[in-house]
Fold these 3 entries.
Entry 1:
Amino acid sequence: MNTLPHLLALLIFSLSLQTLESKEPPLLHNLPLENFWILVEPTFLKPEVTITIPGAQDTVFVPAKEISDYPGIQAFSQDQFDKLRISKDSFYHRAAVAAGRVLDSIEPKIVKDENDKVKYAAIHLTRPIASGLVIAPNFQQKFKNLFGENILVIIPERHTLFVFPDNQDLYSAYLLPMAARFEDAVYACSRELFLWKKGAKKPVVIGRFDR
């Protein structure tokens, strides 16, 4: 591996991330706490209630709800989930609708190169719900004008997700800093690559970014 391009990408990525994290979409403050939400979590956390992600080996979807106390979101225990008296599919559907509503209220940060060509988009939220946006049914619609019909998503931690075109030549330079962000996160989400395929109803996992 040629380390210089990766170190340069890490530096540029870190600088752009500082700008990203200094801002939050103002409309999000007006949205109520979500009672049906999906967390993206690594399997080593051993959550009690999980929803399988097609293609994933190390990541699961976890039913959760926002709370007013730290850390701002709470995964359902098995007992709590049972008391809801709904299926996992029904919970996922409700969470997807909620994610679509939140995504509509957000203007992603668009990062471009020196030639004004879009490199990637990012969403950073102070509320710990960014990871759950990946299931929004309007996700492709939100980004297809920037990246085309097939959209790659990286979710290293709860507060931030990154969106790329499905082109390894374009996103590969960022995989090292993404892996570092996952390792350093207080609430890490996934080392896997999510893909929204053209015409798909849900995202799938197509690989890992630390290999």
Entry 2:
Amino acid sequence: MSDHTDDNLGPQYAADLHRQGEVETAVKPAHKRRRWLGRLTGLVFVGMVVGLAVIGMLKFANDPVSGTTVSAKSLKQSTDPTPAPPGTLHGLYASMNYPGVFNQVSQVKTDANALEQYNLGSSTTYRRTITVDISSFPTGKPHDDSNYRLREIQSATYMPSTKTVNGETVYIMTKNDASEVSWFWPHAGKLLVVAVTTTQPGDHPADFATLVMNSVRWNS
């Protein structure tokens, strides 16, 4: 009886194996399709992320930068050293202020006819100087001073002008390249001559000369 049962089961077992093979054969392509779809979905997702990142970077590069805008001028001002306060020259016949960048003051005697003479320099550069001369000047006419005449005859180099300070006329000679401004102030039989010379970049001789001129206080 056992042999008969095994014989009957043989065909049935073969049929079952056949059907199982068909099922497995059908399942494998479906599994492969799902795996392919999964990979495709992953690639699409990665592509979207990369695309969004690229768009974001392009937008950031094209959009103006937000925040406080700092101009080159204000940046330079913020990094420039604080200007030194003006100094004061107390002379026998006149006193005056001078720019703080001139931090070396010495009294000299290069003209025998001068009543007072001073040289002002800078410890940071030899390119800037101020000379101060006070001499007797009975005529009161600048054309009678040799330094004024020397500049006057060099009309291609110096430009003359005048300015009224405290009711008196000051005669100014400005060099065409703006490296020198000299002025001549007749007062009560005396002549005050101030010559500002500088080739230091960033210096403004006219401003220096004006500061000194506007601060003059005659002692007599």
Entry 3:
Amino acid sequence: MRDLRELKFPVFLTPVRQLVLLPLAALIFVGVWRVRQGEELRALRKEMSRDEAELTLRSTRAESARHGATAAVDGAGRTDPAKVDWRKVCEAWSGRASSDGMSDMESARLRSQMLEWSAAQLIAALEQIDGSDFDSMNRQKAAGPLIAALVEKDPAAALARSERLAVAGKGQDYSYLDQALKGLAGRDPGAAIAWLDRQNAAGLISPAGQEVSRMFEGALIIGLAQSDPAAAARRLESSPPERRAELLGSMRLSSPEDVASVVRLARDSLKPEEVPGLVASVTTEMLSSGLAPTSALLDRIGATPEERLAVAEKFSKSPLEGLPQVRDLNAEDLRGLHDWMKTQAPGKEDDLTAMTMLRAVFYGGRPGGARIEQAILKSDPDGGGHLLVPFLKAMKAIHQQPTDGSLIDHVADPGVRQELSAPP
């Protein structure tokens, strides 16, 4: 055997190059192996996903078969509206499902897929329900989600169905119909006006009471305000002057555009002294989205100082919608509220902020009164009357005592402390 020392390596594998190339070759090998491993894993995951989808579809089909095939499922897992057993749907949505009735999984899937059905499919499903022997209550339960979906796709069809039921003596289903009328008025003002006039002429709405009549009239006007402002104004002016503010205030508003439309109508048709209260009524409904969006809305409608003051005063009497609901109020919340009040009602921000906090504690059912009082103290550390004094005075006015009796001690002015400590 030859001595290994006598072996001659090729020039390209000199000891120096071995030190460089061999580790590099090892890295290349590892890299190629990892790429191939990654491809195999991706292929495996893809196959597992197909298997999981197939298992889900089989489970869905088995569930439908076990519960009396309440809803036929096609190859993609979609429900065929023409084969739905609406009696079992009604039982499930009424909480009265029997052992062979619709499962929770089927019910949830059906509600979700209704949103994807065409207007024709929704109408066909409603015709099945209307042709059944359901009583009025069960018919409304089964038809409600269908009508809600149909209102978005074809509001005229939803209104036509309601009219057919009323004429046939089956009672009128008012579910979502005001939104259908509003939607139709935005697309076809003439058709919407004609529909409501027919209902009124035939006496189909008046038996439901004045509240329902105002609901439909308001929906028509707010829909017309988007498509034909002049027609909306004429419709409002056809109402008795003493009822216009009530009609505008009872409208269901769903967007800042709706609020702006109502405010324009109010300024054109109401007495000047009625407008601020109406503006306060319709804008405070939007406070659930927070103080900043409400400020933007007031800017958008060009709210006058009188209107802003009315909004601030109304908010101070029903404050919970615009304040945090999932935690205790803190000093930062109070400072933000105080700044908002100062913008809307300069000169009255202290009293209105204090009143808002008072109602949040005692009238809104919010727990943690002592913590709110401490937040007021922290937002007014010098005790000079910024928020603490108005808050304590308001409490005394309604014969209440602060949860923390030492709060009065933080008032800087001795005369005010004495006044607050005196019996009411």
